[in-house]
Design brief:
The complex is a heterodimer. By secondary structure, chain A is of the alpha/beta class. Chain A contains 8 helices and 10 strands. In chain A, α2 crosses α3. The model of chain A has no long low-confidence stretch (mean pLDDT 90). In chain B, α1 runs antiparallel to α2 and α9 runs antiparallel to α10. Chain B starts with a helix and ends in a 9-residue tail after the last helix. Classes of the chains: A alpha/beta, B alpha/beta.
């Protein structure tokens, strides 16, 4: 689905990603873990096309297309979705209107007919039913005055409606209590199919108890320094990140 | 006493005005007019040396030789463009300050409700007019409002007796149609809503043609104890029009008043809002949206005066500026001694769509009570890049995203409007004004 090769990226001239290699196939769940400042969120933002980052080296192929050549909206239309760590408020625009605009933009790009308000409400109702949520967020302005938990739920609601091929969840678990976390994780699991893939970016192992990863990668200093199965996450939880970053530093020093 | 030629011109006009028809009016009205003229000759036109007019020069108004607009007519099609509700309770159309009876109508109103021209009210209900005229807008500190008082005649009078609900929308349309020379028209509206009564009102100011003109308007609104008044004010003057306005309101105990101001037109417009919360438990909302492009200049000077305790006021002004438009916002909140438990919130957000657009925002809090909650905030800048990225990351292309965010800035204000007909019309006007994400000057 996505193949990232030797990806380097800078922000304001400082190199943050220093050669990421990662391949995610349909049906898989990958977890990207790592200490603060390791480049996890940068990686997520670079893949979504945030203009603050400059890709200086490497390539990303997404469903056979050169992702790095595409505008952020083209990436979304091609099936890439980033659940933001810090969802942004859009004043004056209701969630329902925003969702329908996004939904129709993606349909249009796929050559499908756009839906009017009533037909879209049917789609929305169906999605809400699948994930078992109500429509209380729909008539409020996008993320405006939302609590932390509501913002994260709203990201997952968008994920449900937009049906991307690849979902990147950037710290979707941060700031959630255990009940909210379970609700969000349940929804993510319900949305998984053999045709789509999920990349979970997180600092903590907690979320991975509910959304079980096939692979766990540890990011440090802008590189993936270790990859393994889900047991790696448990090891990190028990021992922290220091042992990996230290080991990496040693390797770097001796090589 | 200001004795320059520009002031003298108005004094001469006033002499002709007084000897021409106005002499038939009751003596008390003559005294009110003379008081206005006296005040005007004392203070003259404001200059940028005056703190309240620091960012707004009215030289172009002062230097233009405006004659008093003469009564004329407009066709119904022109009026339709400025109408709102198909089922309006009443529509009073003023053309050049005089009531155009062929374009106006008053539907079946509850007993005791009066919707008429001010002139008619002066004849038929002098006691109602005399008791209130000039009590919500004194014009003491503003030469334009003093002039309006000096020339008071044209306008609309609305009276709602105690505990009466006017369910339909009352529409006031003030149009100026100059012939070939610049004209000034004075509009004076007096709105009295007695205790427990309810009224929804929209004022629209607009012009016809391409000759410069000046609309000088004053609206005074009295909201009785427990009354609810919902007012809308839409300014759609032409690109050659000047608009100078004062709106004053005085609220009684436990009353609810909202004023929604939406200026979209004029070369230069200035609106002074004076909101006095004169009874305990009053609720006041001042909700504004300005959309300016080209060389337009808009200035809001608002004072919310918390004279009594336990009142709550909310002030929201959003501005969308393009081209080399300029906006000025001055929001003063006064909490008088003893006005404890006042809760007041003020925000002014300016969206700059062009590097040449400019906004000056100045909050002024004058608090003389100790148990109050007053907050204010202002923002200024272009569209937020992170928000733009967020929308793009959901598949919406950059141009649509910009348009959506800009519209959202306006919708935020329009959403607070309770009257669906007015809100929908304004939404359409704002959408039209924001074609392709830039403000199209009116």
């Amino acid at each position: 689905m996505i193949e990232i090769k030797n990806l380097h990226a800078t922000a304001d001239g400082a190199e943050i990603l220093r050669g990421i290699d990662l391949e995610v196939k349909a049906g898989q769940v990958h977890a990207i873990m790592g200490p603060n400042g390791s480049g996890k969120s940068t990686m997520a933002q670079v893949l979504a096309g945030h203009p603050a980052y400059e890709v200086t080296k490497g390539s990303v192929s997404f469903l056979g297309q050169d992702l790095l050549e595409m505008e952020p909206d083209e990436r979304a239309c091609a099936g890439l979705f980033l659940a933001f760590q810090y969802p942004v408020a859009i004043r004056g625009i209701t969630n329902a209107y925003f969702l329908r605009s996004a939904f129709n933009a993606i349909r249009k790009a796929r050559g499908q007919e756009e839906l009017d308000t009533l037909d879209f409400l049917d789609v929305l109702d169906e999605k809400l039913r699948v994930i078992g949520w109500d429509d209380s967020l729909m008539n409020r302005p996008v993320n405006d005055g939302f609590s932390g938990g509501e913002k994260k739920r709203n990201e997952i609601l968008q994920l449900a409606v937009l049906e991307p091929k690849l979902a990147i969840l950037d710290e979707t678990d941060s700031g959630l209590d255990i009940d909210a976390l379970r609700i969000v994780a349940d929804a993510v699991n319900k949305l998984r199919t053999p045709e789509n893939a999920t990349v979970v970016v997180t600092h903590y192992q907690r979320l991975l108890d509910y959304v079980e990863p096939d692979f766990v990668h540890v990011l440090a200093g802008g590189r993936i320094v270790r990859s393994g199965g889900k047991e790696l996450a448990l090891e990190l939880e028990a021992k922290g990140y220091d042992w990996i970053t230290e080991a990496t530093a040693e390797t770097a020093a001796t090589s | 006493m200001k004795s320059d030629a520009n002031v003298k011109r108005y004094v001469d006009q006033h002499r002709r005005f007084s000897s021409n028809g106005a002499s038939q009016d009751p003596p008390w009205l003559g005294l009110v007019r003379d008081g206005g003229l006296k005040r005007f000759t004392d203070i003259g036109f404001p200059t940028t040396r005056n703190e309240d007019w620091r960012f707004t020069s009215v030289k172009s108004i002062v230097g233009t030789k405006f004659e008093i607009a003469k009564p004329t007519t407009v066709d119904e099609e022109t009026v339709t463009d400025f109408a709102y509700a198909a089922d309006a309770a009443a529509r009073v159309v003023l053309v050049n300050g005089s009531r155009a009876s062929e374009n106006s109508f008053v539907g079946k109103l509850p007993a005791g409700v009066i919707v008429s021209s001010l002139q008619e009210a002066i004849d038929k209900h002098p006691e109602l007019v005399e008791a209130r005229l000039g009590k919500a807008v004194s014009g003491e500190d503003n030469g334009f409002a003093s002039l309006n008082t000096a020339f008071v005649r044209g306008g609309v009078f609305v009276y709602v007796p105690p505990n009466v609900v006017v369910s339909g929308l009352v529409e006031i349309l003030s149009l100026i149609k100059p012939t070939d020379t610049p004209v000034v028209a004075y509009t004076r509206n007096l709105i009295i809503v007695e205790r427990g009564a309810q009224l929804r009102l929209v004022e629209t100011y607009a012009g016809v043609g391409a000759t410069p003109y000046c609309a000088n308007t004053v609206t005074e609104i009295f909201v009785g104890d427990g009354a609810t008044v919902d007012c809308y004010r839409v300014q759609r003057e032409t690109a050659d029009g000047f608009h100078v306005a004062s709106t004053g309101s005085v609220q009684g105990r436990d009353s609810t008043y909202s004023m929604h101001a939406v200026p979209l037109g004029a070369r230069l417009s200035r609106h002074d809002v004076r909101m006095v919360m004169d009874g305990e438990g009053g609720q006041g909302t001042l909700n504004g949206l300005y959309l300016m492009g080209g060389n337009q200049h808009v200035d809001h000077n608002t004072i919310i005066d918390h004279a009594k305790p336990h009142c709550e006021s909310h002030e929201y002004f959003n501005g969308i500026l393009d081209g080399s438009a300029r906006a000025v916002f001055n929001g003063r909140i006064i909490v008088r001694p003893g006005a404890q438990k006042t809760n007041s919130k003020q925000t002014n957000n300016n969206l700059l769509l062009s590097g040449d657009a400019r906004a000056d925002s100045q909050p002024q809090l004058e608090i003389y009570a100790d148990d109050v909650r007053c907050t204010h905030g202002a923002t200024l800048g272009p569209l937020d890049e992170n928000s733009l990225f967020y929308l793009q990351a959901r598949g919406i292309d950059a141009e649509s995203a910009r348009r959506m965010m800009t519209m959202g800035f306006g919708l935020e204000v329009l959403e607070r409007m309770g009257d669906a007909a007015v809100r929908e019309k304004l939404e359409m006007l704002v959408r039209d004004g924001l074609q392709s994400g830039t403000v199209k000057p009116v």
